[in-house]
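Hello,

Our lab assistant flagged a job as stuck in the queue for most of the afternoon. It eventually completed. Since we weren't sure the result was trustworthy after the delay, we are filing this so someone can double-check. Below is the sequence as submitted and the structure that was eventually returned. Let us know if re-running is recommended.
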Amino acid sequence: MKLTIVTIAYNSEQEIGRTIESVLAQKQGDVPCSLEYLIIDGASSDGTVAVAQGYIPAMEAAGIDYRISSEPDRGIYDAMNKGIRRATGDIIGILNSGDWYEPVAAAAAAAAFAGTGCDLMYADIRMHRTNGTTYVKKARQRRFQTSRDWNHPTTFVRAQLYKQYPFRCLGIHDDYGFFLQMRRQGRRIVTVDRVLANFSMGGASNRKDIGAARKRIMDRYRYCYRINGYSRLYMIECVAIEAAKMILG
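-- returned structure --
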């Protein structure tokens, strides 16, 4: 089995090293797998690419197929689609710059796909607040689907599905929209009850701004739920998610 990990980066000179090192730290598990690691940079003006290039010798020593590209893109999901198109692995995971894997992430993904024949898997994640505190966000599946139960940095997908259904590039939650699309199609989805990744809060999806929150609500409602045939009642969930961010952080 071959796993491709895609990291999207833009002017992240200070954060990308931790992300790359977490891929280097991956351990082999019971299911043998090789790693391909793609850095998709959006023509950064800082030292992001230089930092990434500094890891070439370590990647070669670890036997990881490591490739770096840097060119303008039309946003984060356009960059993700580029990485997906260039991936040669059987399974694809997307880990954005600044976030990082636990050392068992790739092994756990390989075991899940080999053991269950799933199309998509995801796991628990540790959320890191800007004040230094953390909490674990659990991976769950329920009849009433909510993004509170899904964690993109821990998600691994069969490459053929990512390539067949690229991100729509419509809004800030296109990754969750893809997950709902797979769920609506009846794809086999499994969860792993284990922390496999870490997420740094404070990005575009967590800005405490009324205007930004309103846009996130409408993006989630239109481009995640409604576009995939979910009930209009999911507007309640969209509002509740943003209210919780404003109150609890």
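-- support follow-up --
The delay was a queue issue, not a problem with the job. The result is valid. The longest strand covers residues 189-200. The beta strands are 2-9, 34-41, 65-70, 91-94, 100-101, 120-128, 134-137, 156-158, 189-200.
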